[in-house]
Amino acid sequence: ITGAPPPLQMRPADRCAVGSSTLLGALCGLILVHSFGSNNGLQSTLSRQVTQVPRGLRMVQQRSSPWVSNALSRQKKEETVSIIKEKMDSSSLVFGMKYNGFSVKQLEDLRKKLPEDTSMRIAMNTLVKRAGEDAGYGAISSACKGDNAWWFVGENIASGVKAYIAFEDACKKAAKADPEAPVPEITGGCMDGEFLDANAVKQLKSLPTRTELLARIAGSIKAVPTKLGRSIKQVPQKMAVGVSKLADGDDNKDLIVGDIFPKADAPAEA
């Protein structure tokens, strides 16, 4: 028999099995080296075996990374939408602020100065739109332009708006000394399902705070018993007069109640 033997033909499944066995053996060898000491010859051999992983298997490993990343990304987005929706559910006003040019430290300092029931969060416009549709803030989509830091204001609407105006005024003052200093801008807001532009949002600073509103309500309630007492006080006086007249007419048994009290003048006959 002459000539070289024909090359060995292997099915794809067999090549995959051989590659997996090679990879498993190489990993076991590395564990042994790590456990029992260094061996240059053995390490060199094992390194060559690791690099000889079948190309098809390497491609599968490379393709799996984006799949995992996309799944994690979708999960993170769903969590963000859920958080934004919860904030909207507990807010009376939501509006966006352009934060381009501001440093992380500046935004963190701003967060620390916000009122107790006001918070701020940076989120993608698409996620805010999705959360707004579920929370009754669908009109907020008109403000979803550019990069926004979203303000979530609770019951004390005026306090939250005043906090933004104070921040904007401070930035404008800094911009006079440094023209490159950033100045925030309201992209729009939503309250009671209605869209509000920047001017409408700023006008909400005149609304009474929760404390002021409760004080007004308490003052109104306190005035009600006084007025009611005056009216009730007049009732016994009128009743006493009537009883006195009935007592005076009690001696005459022929009189009736209508005879004691004065009658209205009868209309003149034509």
TrEMBL record:
Protein known as: 50S ribosomal protein L10
Pfam families, per the entry: Ribosomal_L10 (PF00466)
Signal peptide range: none
Assigned keywords, A-Z: Ribonucleoprotein, Ribosomal protein
Protein family according to the UniProt entry: Belongs to the universal ribosomal protein uL10 family.
Family annotation (Gene3D superfamilies): 3.30.70.1730
GO cellular component, one term: ribonucleoprotein complex
